[in-house]
Design brief:
It is found in: Endomembrane system; Membrane. By secondary structure, this protein is an alpha/beta fold. It is built from 16 helices and 19 strands.
């Protein structure tokens, strides 16, 4: 192309080369300048956040954190059973669809309570285990709803100053013992150590989990805070493992392939609705070869339908839908008798290969979500397929209890630095530590301590070291730390994921001993120390204990702040006697609200 004067013309593209190049250079320089400003501001903000989190007006980069003495006020009496992240006063803010309002919804920072939760009027030190399994003080859990509404089912009954627990339930009004006896006849693996861990969804007052303790099976009893008033609180008051929770819109805070058995006794969960997401979540957390037990509608509908306010045709349809859904997600009917039906999760990969068919329903999960991701992770209507390479994940491939407690699980190799050698080292380390702990706190191993929480465990070593003592341990793994919880469950122990910047899913006054190992060092950049201590105070029983193992940098500051929670603490050496790490042995005082009658 030429101009009319005959000279060759530059193309349009060529004519923009110089200005475009200049523009790019200018923009790069400007972005570098602005990026430098932004990054410096960001760094300044993070440092400010760390200082705020540890609340340290004094101290140096090399010296220990020092804080001014604080004294936390009492909460008003209405907060005696305060559960911050499952607070009934905040339910109206959330949707009723799929009962999402009963899930965790923690208050924003400006609504957080900075006060000490008082015990109810007339509170007494809980009755000690094993007597507590059958009775508790009425004043400690002063709720009559279950007593009045479920009196014909013998969940509990009030006599004088106590609640008594006869061992009844909706599907076993004549006692849980005979109910579990029948279950053992249907599932022989409950008798020989094959089945060790279980979950009970919609647990009532945890009579099923309580009975299984005597049979060597450790159960997580799960129930929401709902109109059944204090189900989980009753369970923990009895000394039975329990946690607040519900299968609604989010995954339960447990890794995949964890439990050996799951149970629902007329828990009224609509298993076949919403694409089967509730049953798919049970499938996710149940290990291959594990068992799902259902009693109540629609099982035994031929005899029971008249008492369920329905028709036999409706119940037959519900049962057929349930069976079809279970088959499609690789369950098989294992056994059935009277009101109990048992399905087994298949460990044969040939069934899961069928899910590759694009027309299959439910389909195989392929959205990239980690199978073990379980902290505020939405439920999805798809099947989490077990890793076919994990040969020792199957129930029948695990060593039987109690041998499995000290055998390095296969899944430890999935963790960075995880190995059989690291597992053995951790196991031996905790045996030595526990020997030292028992010298400093002789109450460990006695009936004074029943409900225990290891607030930031690695492999469950603390729990393994006290396995022969009359107590149980809730192993907590930080949602921000490497997820070692699969290893905990493969050992035959129980636990949950949690973020300690938030309140734990339990009622006040539910643990006798809290153990902390470097939690403040690990989380002080995210969580304010005072809120962690206030949460520890909320869930610790009066006269309960805390063992705080922490770096020397934090230990004095923690001790100072603990005085503000009315704890008495003493500083002790670790079993190694090193300067960089110390122990605080603390005890919570029993006090009553000034508003108490």
């Amino acid at each position: 192309m030429k101009h009319k004067d005959g000279k060759p013309a530059q193309s349009e593209k060529s004519s923009w080369k110089v200005p475009m190049a200049l523009t790019v250079v200018v923009l790069c320089g400007l972005s570098f300048y602005l990026g430098g400003i932004f990054c410096s501001e960001k760094e300044r903000y993070v440092v400010k956040g760390v200082n705020k989190a540890v609340d340290t007006p004094t101290g140096t980069a090399t010296g220990p954190v020092q804080i001014k003495a604080v004294s936390f006020p009492e909460c008003s009496a209405e907060y005696r059973d305060y559960t911050p992240c499952t607070d009934p006063k905040r339910w109206h803010k959330y949707g009723r669809h799929r009962l999402a309002f009963l899930e965790r919804h923690c208050p924003p920072s400006f609504e957080r309570q900075e006060c000490l939760v008082p015990p109810p009027d007339g509170y007494k030190s809980p009755i000690r285990w094993p007597k507590s399994k059958n009775e508790c003080w009425y004043r400690n859990v002063p709720y009559d709803w279950i007593n009045k509404q479920k009196s014909n089912q013998h969940w509990l009954k009030k006599e004088g100053e106590k609640f008594l627990f006869p061992g009844g339930g909706t599907m076993f009004p004549n006692g849980v013992g005979a109910y579990v006896d029948l279950m053992q006849d249907l599932i022989p693996q409950m008798k020989d150590g094959t089945i060790r861990t279980a979950i009970d969804t919609g647990c009532g007052v945890a009579s099923w989990g309580g009975d299984l303790l005597d049979r060597g099976i450790l159960t997580v009893s799960l129930a929401p805070r709902d109109n059944h008033q204090a189900q989980v609180q009753f369970a923990l008051e009895r000394g039975i493992p329990a946690i607040l929770g519900i299968i609604a819109t989010q995954r339960l805070p447990f890794p995949s392939n964890s439990f050996d058995m799951a149970h629902c006794s007329r828990c009224l969960i609509p298993w076949t609705e919403f694409g089967g997401v509730y049953l798919l979540e049970v499938h996710r957390i149940l290990r291959p070869g594990g068992f799902w037990v259902l009693s109540g509608p629609p099982v035994n509908y031929q005899r029971r339908w008249r008492g369920w306010n329905t028709t036999i045709e409706e119940q037959k349809s519900d049962y057929d839908k349930l069976q079809e859904l279970l088959t499609s997600m690789c369950f098989k009917l294992f056994n059935k008798k009277d009101d109990i039906a048992v399905w087994q999760k298949l460990s044969d990969n040939s069934c899961y290969k069928k899910l590759d068919n694009p027309d299959s329903y439910p389909s195989k999960c392929d959205d990239g979500t980690e199978p073990d991701s379980a902290w505020y992770t939405p439920l999805r209507p798809c099947v989490v397929v077990p890793n076919p390479a994990a040969k020792k994940l199957k129930l029948d491939a695990l060593p039987k209890w109690p041998e499995r407690l000290h055998v390095a699980p296969e899944r430890i190799s999935d963790l960075r630095g995880g190995s059989a050698g690291a597992f053995k080292h951790d196991d031996d380390k905790w045996k030595a530590r526990m020997k030292h702990y028992k010298k400093l706190l002789p109450a460990i191993g006695t009936d004074k301590i029943r409900n225990v929480m290891d607030m930031n465990t690695l492999y469950g070593g603390f729990a393994a070291a006290v396995i022969d003592d009359p107590l149980w341990v809730m192993n907590v793994v930080s949602s921000y730390a490497p997820n070692t919880l699969p290893v905990v469950y493969d050992r035959g122990l129980i636990g949950t994921l949690h973020d300690w910047c938030e309140a734990f899913s339990t009622y006040p006054r539910t643990y006798d001993l809290l153990h902390v190992d470097g939690l403040f060092s690990a989380e002080s950049h995210r969580c304010e120390m005072k809120y962690v201590l206030l949460e520890m105070d909320r869930i610790l029983r009066p006269l309960g204990y805390a063992i705080i193992r922490e770096s020397s940098y934090f230990v004095d500051a923690i001790a100072t702040m603990a005085k503000g929670t009315r704890w008495s603490c003493r500083k002790e050496e670790t079993e190694y006697g090193v300067d960089k790490e110390k122990l605080l042995i603390c005890q919570k005082k029993l006090w009553y609200s000034k508003q108490s009658s």
